[in-house]
């Protein structure tokens, strides 16, 4: 298996983020390098990360989180996502927000929910990516596994078989240097990745050190269906 890779100006890169912040944590360096090359980049946020009660309780100093509270939190996280993408060099229209249920992607995948899959198929067919950047199926977070499964089913329905690079976030014992494709970041790219992570202010109140630690010297991706 190769240990490094390159992008080209001809690439059309579609990044799937189960929640706002995954785009920066998992592939903030890759997005920067794709943009610098002139490749087209599209970032799909599958949920708004609105079912995120503990940071919301801390920030808003409230215990009960109802539907209106979650909607307000999700809207705030969309704004943070847009700022993150701008920091990484992307315009506002490079983002798509599906607004699917946070903590519900596995259920939607298991049900093969028609509307959810239609959203995914439409994005794939409209953007016509040459490369997908997706959450790993080995991630411990159920939304990340559900995201991966939804993408595979959507590709099947769209009649596509695309190369995929998977990023892994929620798996503490995984050693990223042990396997996969390594993308090395310059000091400038590392700093911009950190700045993009810091755009997600709602997530830093309780987890600042953990989040900022993702601004490493490299990003590692697990390839599948390589061409």
UniProtKB/TrEMBL annotation:
<keyword id="KW-0378">Hydrolase</keyword>
<dbReference type="Pfam" id="PF02585">
    <property type="entry name" value="PIG-L"/>
</dbReference>
<protein>
    <submittedName>
        <fullName>PIG-L deacetylase family protein</fullName>
        <ecNumber>3.5.1.-</ecNumber>
    </submittedName>
</protein>
<dbReference type="GO" id="GO:0016787">
    <property type="term" value="F:hydrolase activity"/>
</dbReference>
<dbReference type="InterPro" id="IPR024078">
    <property type="entry name" value="LmbE-like_dom_sf"/>
</dbReference>
<dbReference type="InterPro" id="IPR003737">
    <property type="entry name" value="GlcNAc_PI_deacetylase-related"/>
</dbReference>
């Amino acid at each position: 298996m190769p240990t490094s890779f390159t992008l080209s100006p001809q690439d059309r890169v579609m990044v799937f983020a189960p929640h706002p912040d995954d785009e920066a944590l998992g592939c903030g360096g890759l997005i920067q390098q794709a943009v610098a090359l002139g490749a087209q980049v599209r970032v799909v946020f599958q949920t708004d990360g609105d079912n995120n009660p503990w940071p919301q309780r801390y920030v808003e100093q409230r215990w009960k989180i109802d539907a209106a509270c979650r909607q307000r939190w999700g809207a705030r996280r969309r704004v943070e996502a847009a700022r993150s993408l701008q920091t990484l060099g992307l315009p506002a229209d490079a983002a798509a927000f599906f607004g699917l249920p946070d903590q519900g992607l596995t259920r939607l995948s298991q049900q093969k929910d028609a509307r959810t899959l239609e959203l995914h198929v439409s994005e794939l067919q409209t953007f016509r990516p040459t490369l997908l950047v997706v959450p790993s199926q080995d991630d411990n977070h159920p939304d990340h596994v559900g995201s991966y499964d939804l993408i595979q089913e959507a590709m099947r329905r769209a009649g596509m078989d695309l190369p995929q690079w998977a990023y892994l976030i929620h798996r503490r014992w995984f050693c990223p240097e042990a396997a996969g494709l390594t993308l090395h970041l310059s000091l400038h790219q590392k700093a911009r990745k950190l700045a993009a992570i810091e755009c997600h202010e709602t997530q830093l109140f309780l987890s600042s050190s953990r989040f900022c630690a993702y601004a490493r010297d490299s990003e590692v991706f697990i390839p599948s269906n390589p061409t």
